[in-house]
Amino acid sequence: MAHTWISMYQPPNIDPTQAAIAYGCRALPKLNEELQSEDLLTRQKALMALCDLMHDPEHIYVAIGTGCLESLRVLLKDTNPLVRIKATEVLSIMAAHNVGRQGFLEHDIIAALSFLLNDSQIACRMNTHLAFKHLAQLPSGALGIVNSGLIPSLVLQLHTEHESIQEILLDTLASCLLEDANEALASRAVPFLKEMLLSHNNNIRTKAAATLTAVSIPLEGKRQVWQYDVIPILVHLLRDLVEEVQANAAGALMYATVTTEGKYAALDAEAIRPLLNLLSSGLTKARLNAIKALTMLAEAPEGRKFLQAHVPIFRSLELDHSEAVRRAAQVAIKVIEWKP
Amino acid sequence: MSTYTYTFTSRPRVLPCQRRRYRDSLVQPAEEPTPYANIMYDRRVIRGNTYAVYQEPPRGQLSDTDVQRHRRTQKRALSKKRTQEQLRPWTPEPVEGRKHVDVQTELYLEEIADRVIEVDMECQTDAFLDRPPTPLFIPAKTGRDVATEILEGELFDFDLEVRPMLEVLVGKTIEQALLEVMEEEELANLRAGQNAYEELRNVELAEVQRLEEQEKRHRQEKERRKQQQWEVVHKHKQTAEKIAARAFAVRYLSDLLPSVFGSLRDGGYFFDPIERDIELGFLPWLMKEVEKTVEHGIVGRTVLDMLIREVVERRLTMYERKDGKLPPVKPKGRPSGPAARRNPPMGHEFQDQRPLPNPDPLRRTDTVSSRERMLREEEDELTELRSSSRSGAWEA
C-alpha cells in the first residue's frame, strides 16, 4: 500500500527484458543455467542480461570459467533469430577483451561462428564479423582464423556483402594477411581489392588500401600486385581527397615498389610527383609512407636522377617533430646521393 | 515370584459391530469399512443398577443346566405368543348356504378388478437446444457503498515519488552506457596506439625489405661482375696459353722439317730413279745370274768329284784285282784319297773357275760352253757308273 512517506530505499531496478541477476558470485553460474533452459523467453532474458554483464572483463573471465562458452555455442544454432543475434553480440563483446579471445581459441568458437557467416539476419552477420575482427587483432587469433580455412570464404564475401560489413571484413582480412597471406592470395584477393579501391565509400577505400598494404608485404603479394596492374590505381589514389586514403595508398606503394618490376611500374605511372606532394601532408603516416616510397624509387637510377633535384625537401623534413620521419628522411637522402 | 497384582490396561478403542449390514454377498468384501457399534445399544454394556444383574455365562464355559434353562425360557415365550394369537376375536365362520362376501359400503363405488388398468403413455425429450450463454454473473451487491474524496495533492506527490525511480532507471542505464563508452574509448585508445605502432612497424618493415632488396641487388651485381671478371681472366689465361703453346709448337716444329727430310732421305724415300732402277732391276738379276753360274760351277765340281771318286775307286778295285790281294800298297791313298782327290780337283776347279767369277756378260757363253762340256762328261760317267754298279758293289 502506498504510503505518503518518501522511502529512503531505492526502488528495485526491474527491467522486464532482462533476467534477474543473482548476487555476487552466483550471477554467472545462474545465468549459465538459464541459458541452457528449454524455455525460449528464459534464454532470451538471460542473453540480454549476459550482454550487459560482459562489458566487464572480470565477468568475462568468470563466464569462461563457468563454461558459458559451451552454452553460447549451442545457442548459436538456435532457430530463433533474436537468440542468435544476442549470442553473437555477446561473443563479439567478449572478443574485444584478451581474456575472451584466449577463451575463444581454447574452446574453438571459430568453427561454430563460421556457420553463421551466411545467416539470414544482417545483425547476426555483422556481430559475427565484429567478433572475427576483434579476434584477428591477436596474432594467435589471426592464425586460428587462417588455420580454420575461413579466408577463402571471407574473401568471397567481400564482394557480396553489405558495405558496412565489408569494412569490418577488410579490417579482419588486413590483420589475417599479416599472419599468413598465401591462402588469401590464392583465392584472388588482389582483384577484389583492386575493385574496392575505386568504390565511392571513403571508409572502404581507406580500408582497402590498408589491406593492400598488408597484401604487398610478402613477396608473392608484391608480385601479384604488379601482375594485376594495381600500381596505377594506387598512384591515382595518391591524389584522393581523403587524407587517410592517400596515406594508405602510399603505404601500399611503399611495399609494392620493393621489387624491381614494381619500381619501374610505379615510375611508369608517374608516381614521384604525387608522392612529393604528400610529403607536405598533415598526417604523420602519410609523410612516413611517402618518404619510404620515394626511398624505394630512388634505388632505381631514373628515380635517383629525378629526385636529386628535390633533395632540399628531404632536408627540411629532417627537422620534423616525429622521430621516425627524421630517420626516414636521413635514409632517403643517403639513398638518393649514393654513387655506385 | 511376583507380588504385584495382575493389571491389564489398554487404550480405549471403539468396538466394531458384529452386525452385518448387508446380506452375505458371494464375495466377502474385505475392504468395507468396519461398522462401529453404538454402545448405547450394546448388550454387553451394563446400564443402570448393576446390582444382581444377569451375568452372561462366560464364553466357552456354558454348562448343561444353563443350556436347558435357556431353551425352556424360549419355548415358554413362544407358547405364550401363540396363545395370545388364538385369543384374538375375529368374525365367525359363515353359516351353511351363505357366503361371506366383501362389499364396498362407501359412498362411491369402486370397481375392483384384478386387471390393472393400463394406459400407454409415451414421452420424448425435446431436441437439444444450444446451451445459451451463461448470463453475466453480477453478484448481488452486498455491503455498503463508501466513497472517499481525494483532493489534488493529498495522496502523494508524483514528482517527488517518481524521482528515486527515475534515478534508478536513469542511473542504471547511464552506468551501463558509461561502461560501454569507456570500453569503447579504451579500445579506441588501444587502437590508436596500435595504429601508431603499426605505422612504425610498416615503415621499419619497408626499410628492412628495401635494404634486403638492395642487398640482393648489390650481391647479384657483385656476382655478375665477379663472373664477368672471372671470364675475362679465364679468357686472358687461355689466350696466353694458346700463344705460348703456339710459340712452343713453332719452335718444336722448326727443326722438324729438316729432320723429317733427313730421316726420309735416310729411309731411302728420296731416290735417284735410274739408280733405283739399276738397284731394283738390274742388280738382283745379276746376282741371280751369278748365283746360277756359281751353282753350276758347284754342281759341276760336285759331279767332277763324284766322277773322280768313281774313277779312283774303280782303278783301285782294278789294281786290287790285278794285284790279287796284295798288301795294301796305297792305304793312305784311300782315306786321303778322297781328300787328296778333293784338293787337286779343287785346285783344278779353281783354275777352271778363275776366269768364271768375272762379271762380264760377254764371257757368259764361255762358261756356258764349259759347263755344257762338263755336263756331257758327267752324263757319260754316270752311265758308266751305273753299269759298273750293276756289276760290282761299292767298296767305299
Protein architecture, described:
The complex is a heterodimer of chains A (340) and B (396). Chain A has helices spanning 27-35, 40-53, 57-65, 68-75, 81-95, 98-107, 109-114, 122-137, 139-147, 151-160, 163-179, 182-186, 189-196, 202-215, 219-227, 231-237, 243-256, 260-268, 272-278, 284-298, 301-307, 311-317, 323-336. With 340 residues, chain A is mostly helical. In chain A, α11 (163-179) runs parallel beside α14. The model of chain A has no long low-confidence stretch (mean pLDDT 85). Chain B has 396 residues and is an all-alpha fold. Helix content of chain B is 58%, strand content 0%. Chain B has helices at residues 64-86, 158-254, 256-267, 273-323, 336-353, 364-391. In chain B, α4 packs antiparallel against α5 (336-353). Chain B is elongated, with a radius of gyration of 98 Å. The model of chain B is unreliable at 331-363 (pLDDT under 50). Chain A binds chain B through residues 2, 4, 6-7, 10-13, 15, 52, 55-56, 96, 137, 213, 217, 251, 254-255, 258-260, 284-285, 288-289, 292, 295-296, 299, 324, 328, 331, and chain B through 155-156, 160-161, 164-165, 167-169, 172, 176, 179-180, 183, 187, 194-195, 199-200, 202-203, 205-207, 209-210, 212-214, 217.
Low-confidence stretches of chain B: 331-363
How is the main sheet of chain A built? none
Share in β-strands of chain B = under 5%
* Count of beta strands of chain B: 0
What is the share of helical residues of chain A?
A: over 70%
Low-confidence stretches of chain A: none
Task: Find the biggest chain interface.
Answer: A-B, 33 and 30 residues
Give the mean pLDDT of chain A: 85
Secondary-structure content class of chain A:
mainly alpha
Coarse shape of chain A: elongated
Query: Which outline of chain B best applies?
Result: elongated
Spell out the helices and strands of chain A N to C: HHHHHHHHHHHHHHHHHHHHHHH
**Tally of alpha and pi helices of chain B:** 6
Major sheet attributes of chain B: none
Q: Provide the residue-averaged pLDDT of chain B.
A: 78
